[in-house]
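Predicting holo structure, flavin mononucleotide bound.
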Amino acid sequence: MHLRRPSRGYNSLIRYLGLSVNSACVINSTPMASQPPGAALSKIEKQQFRRICGKFASGITIATVLDSEGACHGMTANSFTSVSMTPPLVLVCVDHRTRIREHFRIGEHFGINILSASQKDLSDKFAGSGYDRFQGVSWYPGKTGVPLLPDVLATIECARVNVVTAGDHDIVIGEVLHADCLDGEPLVFYASQYRSLG
Ligand SMILES: Cc1cc2nc3c(=O)[nH]c(=O)nc-3n(C[C@H](O)[C@H](O)[C@H](O)COP(=O)(O)O)c2cc1C
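Done. Tokens:
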């Protein structure tokens, strides 16, 4: 990968991420475990890290799960990624600070709802706090029981197969059991803002 001449902050970021930059600006990854414990980004480096990661455009999903009493929980997540075709695996990264985290660690299944361009309000609702996120929201139980949202671009139901702790997030990995999709335009997230294609 060819990069512009790195700044000092950039070099620190690269060190934190366990990367090394040679004179030709090629980045080679080294294991995170080789980093000294307690390595942390300063505030400005965090902002730069967010800015850099924000250059990767994503869709937006609502990840859903039931708690041990069968109550619905959901959160807006753009960290959704497909992982494997055989078996079909996907992942979503869940911040340790979220309350929903414990439900993803315990629940046997979780759902992914990929939002369409007209569903920005749902994204905002499932990222906010201080209210029941499912209040006033149409939903239906999928085949596994997880809450699914009507009129989204795609629904995916997963069996949780692994949860890997990585830094301050859990990587929740699921095997896809059921999935469906509609035609339409996606809601896009880029540079910390909602966008649409075209
Ligand atoms: C566009 C967008 C994308 C987000 N993506 C993620 C994500 O991938 N992982 C995550 O843990 N939080 C993400 N968040 C923040 C969570 O939605 C929010 O912190 C979470 O809903 C709080 O959940 P809680 O009420 O269970 O604590 C995102 C927020 C927005 C607005």
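The chain is about 15% helix and 40% strand.
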